[in-house]
Amino acid sequence: MTAVLEIAGLRKTYKSRRRGARQALDGFDMTVEAGQVHGFLGPNGSGKTTTLRTLLGLIKPNGGRMAILGQEVPAALPVVAGQVGAIVESPQFFPHFTARDTLSLLADAGRVPQTRVMEVLELVGLQERAKERVKTYSLGMKQRLAVASALLKNPKLLILDEPANGLDPGGIREMRTLMRDLAASGMTVVLSSHILGEIQLICDSVTIISRGRRVAAGPVAEVLAQHSGGGLRVRLEAVTDLPVAAELLTRAGAQVSTHADHLMVDGVDKPAAVTRVLAERDLYVSELAPVTVDLESVFLELTGTAPMPGQHRQVDESVVVGADAPAQGGWGV
Amino acid sequence: MSLFKAEFRRLLKRRFVRYMTLGGLLVLIAVAVGTFATNHKIGPAEFAAAEQQAEQQYRENVRWATEEKKQCEQAKASGNFDANRFPADCSQISPAPRDAFEARWFLPSTFDFRRQFEDMITAWAAILALVAFVAGASFIGAEWSTGGMMNLLLWRPQRLRVLLTKLGALLTGLLGVALVTAAAWVGAFWAIASLRGTTEKTTSGVWQSFGLTGLRGLAVVLVAGAVGFALASLGRHTAMALGGALGVMVVGQFGLGIVLNMAGVTFAEAWLLPTYLLAWMQKKVVLQDWDACNATYTGECKPATMEIVWQDGGTLLAVGLALTLGAALWMMRRRDVA
Fold it and tell me: Which domain holds residue A53?
């Protein structure tokens, strides 16, 4: 498989006379293979939008390497821009133009046939409202228009930052179907979103960023498997046997935690080892199930952003990876 | 070319630009209509009426002088003489001579194309320059503030090319409006002069002079548009250019003018921008210092003068344009678009 998007060691520091310097990207790496729907996840302020803006030439990096469709960017951006459709953060359009005018002007600027304008408006469900001014649109409609503008070029790489923002449930489902159809047609899609359930449903692979560094990357199933911990939920025929079973499994080298009606067992190679140890002492298992995790829990674990009772987490309070990571990532470093 | 086409279309679609242009056109029309309404053709009938008015004015003056003289003599005789009202010698009260009442004073205003059209070119340039400045500022400022510029850069990630193409589209639009209105302006005032004045002595040399003044006016219009564009691009908002211009006018011109006058600075106008713009348009502005006396051999006291010529105005315009546009291009190259 060829990489459509490659980022290696990307660094960006924002400097402010008043607040000092803030390291927004600190050696960030990311690879997206062709034909995939790739989820790009991270808490607020983790560097997602900075990464996308840098990739698209809107922000100048302080270091690192980036390539799109095999071409080094930002140097080759004018060459590859025609094959990259993107929306970055919230959709922004001149409010007094109609949707059709907005796309028509972009089509002119990008040498795209005007016939494509109505095609994409139909694709995102805005055909009927094409002649209305953008300022009359809801956030969801603006979001659809933004997606339409990104699709106008019929790009090979589609980068969407929070495309489901403001969409109603039907719209979210339509967007999901659209992403899948686009990927099936050979388009590579990079999707940044906080709706992790959606990402898990749509994406083939993910990259998770925290405080400007990559904390996880790979196919969704692999990332989930890596962080599921291989835990097992064990129930016995008699609840009264749980303490004995816990002692036996601990002696066998497993980490066991006892709950009211079951045990949670970690650190065993194979589930069969559990049944064997218990059966040797005439303890019979009524349920033996691997504990599955979802993307949301993995995300919260990896980024350290799970809400804690009684605490108000600040935007920059997330996980820093790497031994040489700075102690603080916020303003004033 | 596709980018230029898109930007030119965008310029034509911008509602604010349309309204500003329409506003400018209405002001131009108002000036032309006002000139038409306040001027009249001078013929034998107008001369005769003026002569009659001059005669009447003379007679009234004779009547008044006679009455005053009579009252003066009566006051003297009654002992109620008011020295503040009458001269000591009542015979000194006499009417002005007949030739002091010239008929030309009573002629209606008439539009002399050769003599007055040059000022009209300056008015045309001033009105269009204002439109150009605001339209230029809005064209790029609104794009920055609404995120349209960022969107465009995603499509054409060549910052300087995008900015310069936008400027090119703006200047093309301004040039079009300027040429059309200039032609209409000449036509309108030629018609006004024909109907309500005179077009006599409009030689080819006069036309050439008008042409050169018109070209200088066109330069002012284009520079105003480019400076408005550059300032709004620097501040990424239309208000940056408008606020900056207002600040320069209020603080830098009115305020500075007051301070310089209070300080008694010689040739205070030499520090003010409008003087240079006027010199650019009128080829020369002569400033006079009435506090200085340059005695002539006849003993006459003449004020000291200072000439500001069109080259001075041109240099100022060029430097202002280079600084603002250069800064806008430099910022465009290096800034993060967020």
Answer: 3-225
Q: Give yes or no: residues A174 and A283 share one domain.
A: no
- Co-location of A51 and A74 in the same domain: yes
In a domain, A307, yes or no: no
Report how many domains make up chain A.
Answer: 2
CA distance B188 to B269: 34
B57 and B167 in a single domain? The answer is no
Task: State yes or no: ipTM above 0.85.
Answer: no
Of B13, B147, B155, nearest to A109 by CB-CB distance is B155
> Cβ of A60 and B334 within 8 Å?
yes
Q: Does A159 touch chain B (CB under 8 A)?
A: no
- Structure-token pair, residue A108: 């002119």
B309 and B249 share a domain? yes
Give, for all 333 residues of chain A, the pLDDT tens digit: 688 999 999 999 988 887 788 888 989 999 999 988 999 988 888 888 899 999 999 999 999 999 999 999 889 999 999 899 998 877 678 888 999 999 999 999 888 999 999 999 998 888 889 999 998 988 888 888 988 999 998 899 999 888 877 778 887 887 788 888 888 888 999 998 877 777 888 888 999 888 888 888 888 878 877 776 668 889 998 888 999 999 999 998 888 888 888 898 887 878 888 899 999 888 889 988 877 777 777 777 777 666 666 666 665 666 666 544 443 333 322
Q: Which of B91, B106, B121 is the last residue of a domain?
A: B106
Q: If you ran DSSP here, which 8-state letter would residue B270 be given?
A: G
Least Cα separation, residue B18 to chain A (angstroms): 13
Which tokens is A156 given? Answer: 């090979």
Taking CA atoms, what residue in B is nearest to A92?
B147
Q: Nearest CA of chain B to the CA of A256: how many Å?
A: 50
Chain B contacts in chain A segment 66-125 (CB below 8 A): 74, 77-78, 81, 86, 88, 92-97, 101, 104-106, 108-111
Residue A305 belongs to some domain of the structure: no
Round to whole Å and give the CA distance between A129 and A145.
10
Residue A41 β-bridge partners: A208
In a domain, A304, yes or no: no
The number of folded domains in chain B is: 2
User: DSSP letters of B125-190?
Assistant: HHHHHHHHHHHHHHHHHHHHHHTHHHHHHHHS--HHHHHHHHHHHHHHHHHHHHHHHHHHHHHHHH
Residues, chain A: 333
What part of B 138-167 touches A (C-beta under 8 Å)?
Answer: 142-143, 146-148, 150-158
Could you tell me if B75 and B222 lie in one domain? no
Range of the domain at B99: 44-106
Report the alpha-carbon distance of residue B236 to residue B229 in Å, rounded.
10
Is residue B336 within 8 angstroms of chain A, CB to CB? yes
Residues B141 and B288 placed together within one structural domain of the fold: yes
Residue A295 in contact with partner chain B when CB distance is under 8 A: no
